[in-house]
Amino acid sequence: MIQPIQTEIALAEVGAPFKRYEIDLVNKPEWYAPKVNRASKVPAIAYGGPDVAPENPSPESTKLAESLILVEFIGDLYPSSNIVPADPVLRAKARFFIEIVSTKFSPNFMKFASGNPEGTHAALLAGVDAIQDILPDGAKYAVGDQYTIADIAFTPFWARLNVLAQKGIGAYKDEERKSFLKGLEDSKYAKFNGYVQRLLARPSFKSTFHEDVVEEFFTRRFGLAK
Q1: DSSP-derived secondary structure letter, 104
Q2: Which runs of consecutive H residues, i.e. helices, occur in 29-148?
Q3: 54-78, pLDDT tens digit by residue?
């Protein structure tokens, strides 16, 4: 199972106490679907109710699911963290940034990793272009100097792509990997490269991302580049 890192980054950012329980969806426990998430997907959380073992969730707790919904929920629980911007304009910009990630970047990432003919280095760089185009000049993060849900949404996709490209993991042709890495060296991507370096330097990311897990999962799924 690949870790649902967006939710864990949000929990780390706000400093929320929680109990972590990892579910193997290939061999998921019988209690998970009926007691936590009938869709049998991760991540999911049980909020409220008595303090019980994760494998024995209380019917008194509220069960919630889907990564970005959980990220916003966590931000709403901890408004002082500002991961959900209080300003409605910045909040709208954050959600628009997430839309760009979801439509322009992440689909090309998965096509690239899986060896889909449409998943070329040019398509990946087009996704990078789309993100760089909406990054504010002179700011640290997606919508300004405050780290938000927008950054949390993008970070795992970039971190995984970075591991795959650096390690040569995936069903793509190796020449596509090399062309992508070479393209990123262009000075025109200075703003984007500075942005992602700041994302990967966040303590919340470092404490929740496990490169060895990502490497093992994608190698087993797609193998190595040819």
Answers
A1: I
A2: 32-35, 67-77, 88-100, 106-114, 121-134
A3: 888 889 999 999 999 999 999 999 9
